[in-house]
Amino acid sequence: HRTLTISLSLSPSIQSILALNPRVQTHAALLSTATKKMEKKHWKRNAEKGCEFSVFTVNNFTLHCMWGNSSTVLFSYRRLKCADAPCQKSYPTNLNIKAFISSIASKNYYGAARTILSDNPLGLTCGMVCPTSDLCVGGCNLYASKEGPINIGGLQQFATEVFKQMGVPQIQNPDLPPPHQIPESYHTKIALIGCGPASISCASFLARLGYDDITVFEKQRFIGGLRSVINLTHGSYSEFSSCI
């Protein structure tokens, strides 16, 4: 299953504008689960609301994001531009949350999605089903405010859904050498067992590095891993299976 290189059918002016957006990360951030759990516990703002663990969650969206452009931008204006944002400390992949929310505030939905998908290839799925009150939203500095914390999951879902509707073609990483100059080692067959979030993310980062013969094996009839076979906090698998 070799990766196909597709040329952008966009005008040079549009391509130059898109190039101004944040660069896509080619390497995943190495963060231990133990470290992230300690950071999440340290910055948690909603433990007294019954959100110490992910058994119970509050203030989460259960359906597809129905916000329009104006309401989404309005919600993004509530950001505090935190210098050391605690929500990022509680986000498992250390996503630059304040950067993508700032992009939404300026109506740069492409830039927001680029930031999200750069660190988290499953950004749309996570925006739909992630128990945010136990993670990033649980550390929001606005949690004690009258309006409540920023709905990070809702904003993330909106940005990635808008990006999906844009239909921007996928291309090979422009920083890589031409296909005929890529070392032979990058054509080595790579197998990933189980088509869950870990394998999908791993395949995404390998492709960004230039590896072009990656196969993901899955014994089930569907993909998605554990989230596809357990009861979801946020509705059924059918609601987001097409987004994985």
UniProtKB/TrEMBL annotation:
GO terms for MF: dihydropyrimidine dehydrogenase (NADP+) activity; iron-sulfur cluster binding; NADP binding; uracil binding
SUPFAM superfamilies xrefs: alpha-helical ferredoxin, Nucleotide-binding domain
A biological process from GO: uracil catabolic process
InterPro entries per record: DPD_II, FAD/NAD-bd_sf, Helical_ferredxn
Domain Dihydroprymidine dehydrogenase: 77-167
GO cellular component annotations of the record: cytosol
Domain of life: Eukaryota
Keyword terms of this UniProt record: Oxidoreductase
Keyword NAD: no
Protein name: Dihydropyrimidine dehydrogenase a, tandem duplicate 3
Organism of derivation: Sinocyclocheilus anshuiensis
